[in-house]
Amino acid sequence: MKKLLLILTLFISLLFTGCEKQDSANNIIVIVQYKTLQHKNVDAITGLKKLLEQVKKEDHFINLRLHVDQKDNSNVLLYEEWDDELYYKNQHLKTEHMQRFIVESQAFLDGPPEITFWKVNAVYK
């Protein structure tokens, strides 16, 4: 009986793990590139981290990575993963925290970001 229960538990866990990997292929990758004002890169990172604490609580958010260019710290890149492109393009951009960031970021960003959308084609590990 214990063996049967163990096998059943293992099968169910593998089933859910497999579904999770399959679903991630349908997620949207969003690349957001910012340019900070001269000598405002620390303020920009601080402002972005404050924003991202709110963003990660949103529906359809999967994960996000904040990158800073090693050669030019005024270049900041966000690598975002979401499970719903329409949500990102509509509700996410209209959230109170995003609207507040757009206004506040004028003090440390050199204009609006460049935003591009990507789909996973293949994964190698």
UniProtKB/TrEMBL annotation:
Q: Which UniProt keywords apply?
A: Signal
Please give one Pfam family short name. Answer: ABM
Task: Tell me the leader sequence span.
Answer: 1-21
Q: Which InterPro entries does this UniProt record tie to the protein?
A: ABM_dom, AI-2_Isomerase_LsrG, Dimeric_a/b-barrel
PROSITE patterns under this entry?
A: ABM, PROKAR_LIPOPROTEIN
GO molecular function annotation = catalytic activity
Gene3D superfamilies noted in UniProt: 3.30.70.100
Q: Which residues form the ABM domain?
A: 28-117
- What PANTHER family is this protein classified in? ABM DOMAIN-CONTAINING PROTEIN, QUINOL MONOOXYGENASE YGIN-RELATED
Name recorded for this polypeptide: ABM domain-containing protein
The record lists the organism as Flavobacterium caseinilyticum
